[in-house]
Specification:
- The complex is a heterodimer of chains A (170) and B (327).
- Chain A has helices spanning 44-48, 67-82, 94-102, 134-140, 163-169; strands at 12-15, 28-33, 37-38, 54-58, 64-65, 86-90, 111-112, 114-120, 127-133, 147-148, 155-158.
- Chain A is of the alpha/beta class.
- Chain A has a domain at 27-112.
- In chain A, a hairpin with a 6-residue loop joins strand 10 and strand 11 (155-158).
- The termini of chain A are far apart.
- The model of chain A is unreliable at 1-6 and 8-26 (pLDDT under 50).
- Chain B has 327 residues and is of the alpha/beta class.
- Chain B folds into two domains: 2-129, 3-Layer(aba) Sandwich (Rossmann fold); 138-325, Heat Shock Protein 90 (2-Layer Sandwich).
- In chain B, 36% of the residues lie in helices and 20% in strands.
- Chain B contains eleven helices and eleven strands.
- Chain B has helices spanning 9-21, 32-41, 44-48, 61-75, 95-98, 116-130, 159-173, 178-198, 250-257, 278-284, 311-315; strands at 2-5, 26-29, 51-55, 85-89, 107-110, 147-153, 226-232, 236-243, 288-294, 298-306, 319-325.
- In chain B, helix 5 (95-98) links the parallel strand 4 (85-89) and strand 5 (107-110).
- In chain B, helix 2 runs parallel beside helix 4.
- The two termini of chain B are 21 Å apart.
- The model of chain B has no long low-confidence stretch (mean pLDDT 88).
- Classes of the chains: A alpha/beta (170), B alpha/beta (327).
- The A-B interface holds A 1, 39-41, 63-68, 70-71, 74-75, 78, 94-95, 98, 102-106, 118, 120, 122, 125, 127, 157, 159-161 and B 160, 163-164, 167, 177-179, 182-183, 185-186, 189-190, 193, 213-215, 261-268, 274-278, 281, 284-285, 309-312, 315-316.
């Protein structure tokens, strides 16, 4: 089980690809990274601190979110949204997109800038993720072509529910 | 006896296999009235134990069914228990569609059978496993080849270590793909959380830990003990979590499972420490649930997952939610 990593101490200035409702593009944002497990023990304040203006949240490590984690997530990001913080979520793995598909306004008014799309090689069983920006998804209409497995060289297939991606580009 | 009310071929195949696996006589009825007529001809135990499976995916079918059955119940009061009535419906069932059914049905089957016969064998084995039993055991819900492990928690702080053990077990002893394993361990996490923090009630029936943060250490001794059984038969993995309170409220539970959080935004309820989402997310991510409760004595909640070669099939697997309240 991957353990929750320590909060990233440094908050880098970053440019968000798309701001809230597309209205706040190119806002310099503090960047943070969430841990692999979002559950009852996740203290969001530890990761987020006290942002002002805009926040870019990297979700790439997240492997699972339990119901207590959903509650903590909503509590945290709803509060930031109410305080005028612009939220941009980057490198969102399927587990985050699944919550977006299940819960209205899971992102508390924020936007997704990029996603990690899962692939599975049926020959050797290796699973891996490919990075796509939402702009790329719009351009290719979520047409996830087979991708070469770097372990055995066979072509790995997209392994998820299309709906959770297509709703991002609707 | 198993009476199927449906005109669909896939339901007929499914119902036939359920009956075979559960060792029940299969009767097919084309309408609720015909089902009630079959029921009326049964005698004694055959009538009391008859299982009714009904396709209610078309509008109007539910009303016909309710009318036919309530007329029958009116004549033969207490002869039909919700524990014996199985709703078969389409994929996108919602609380709105089902609210009127919660008292009448104990079981909700989502018609994404894949292979109806295979789904029927699985469901029939489960029906056979709990029918007439006062003790739910994972071993009776899986096929004979299943291997079983039982673990007892002493304190809630052991939960994380348990989840690690479950992950290790799934990685080493099954062929689930990694993403499916994360979904399964999340489901086990939810079942344990419910048993530790949501099941305990006071003598007067009040929730003991409704305001207790979910990372607060709780001793799990005596009545508060929580047991986890895990089993795998090469095709399905099942986890049963048992608590000693028997505090399930069926209507409340089903309302949460079938609530649409896309129509009404989920808001954090500050008057409660729990999220109230555990079983709903478990069910929506592919798990089937069997909830067996003996009021004020115990509840056993079992989650089932079928092993698939990829996550896409895993997510679309056949599923159901069964709530069996023992008298």
């Amino acid at each position: 089980m991957p353990k929750a990593s320590k909060p990233s101490a440094t908050k880098k200035a970053a440019k968000s690809e798309t701001g809230k409702s597309g209205a706040k593009s190119n806002v310099a944002a503090a960047q943070i990274e969430l841990p692999s497990i979002i559950d009852e023990s996740t203290v969001f304040d530890q990761y987020i601190g006290k942002p002002t203006g805009a926040l870019m949240i990297s979700c790439k490590k997240i492997a699972r979110i339990n119901s207590a984690g959903i509650r903590a997530w909503k509590g945290c990001f709803d509060h930031l949204d109410k305080n005028g913080i612009s939220l941009t979520f980057v490198d969102c793995p399927p587990v985050v997109l699944q919550q977006v598909a299940l819960f209205d306004n899971f992102l508390s008014g924020g936007t997704i800038s990029s996603v990690l799309v899962p692939y599975l090689c049926q020959i050797c069983g290796k699973s891996f993720e490919k990075h796509y920006t939402v702009s790329e998804l719009k351009k290719n209409k979520c047409d996830f072509q087979p991708s070469k497995c770097d372990k055995c060289g066979a072509m790995a297939e997209f392994d998820d529910d299309f709906d959770i991606y297509t709703r991002l580009i609707e | 006896m198993l009476i199927l009310v449906s005109e669909r071929d896939d339901d007929i195949q499914f119902g036939g296999e359920v009956a075979t696996a559960a060792k029940l006589n299969f009767k097919h009825a084309k309408s609720p009235k015909e089902a009630v007529s079959i029921l009326g001809k049964a005698k004694g135990d055959a009538m009391a134990n008859a299982m009714i499976f009904a396709d209610l995916s078309q509008s109007g079918q539910l009303k016909d069914f309710q009318d036919a059955l309530s007329t029958y119940i009116g004549k033969e009061k207490n002869k039909v228990s919700p524990n014996n009535v199985h709703f078969i419906g389409a994929e996108h069932l919602s609380e709105k569609d089902l609210l009127g059914c919660f008292n009448m049905f104990g079981h909700f089957i989502i018609r994404n059978y894949g292979d109806p016969k295979e789904a029927g064998r699985h469901y029939g084995r489960i029906v056979q496993g709990y029918r007439g039993n006062d003790e739910i055991k994972v071993s009776s819900l899986l096929s004979d080849s299943g291997s079983i492990r039982i673990i007892k928690l002493k304190n809630s702080t052991e939960k994380s270590a348990f989840i690690d053990q479950v992950r290790e077990y799934l990685s080493n002893e099954t062929s689930f793909v990694e993403r499916s394993i994360f979904v399964i361990i999340n489901a086990v996490d939810e079942l344990l959380m419910n048993a530790i923090y949501d099941a305990p009630t006071t003598q007067s029936g009040k929730e003991k830990y409704s305001m207790t943060l979910r990372d607060t250490p709780i001793d799990l001794e005596g009545q508060q003990s929580v047991e986890l059984q895990m089993g795998y038969d090469g095709e399905y993995v099942a986890f049963t979590v048992v608590d000693r309170f028997g505090s399930v409220n069926k209507t409340k539970l089903l309302s949460k499972v079938f609530a649409s959080y896309m129509e009404e935004e989920y808001q954090v309820d500050l008057s409660r420490a729990g999220a109230g989402l555990g079983l709903a997310t478990t069910f929506r991510t592919g798990g089937s649930l069997l909830i067996y409760s003996k009021p004020k004595e115990k509840t056993a909640v079992t989650v089932f997952f079928k092993q698939t070669e990829n996550y896409r099939d895993f997510k679309k697997q056949f599923k159901f939610i069964s709530v069996h309240i023992s008298s």
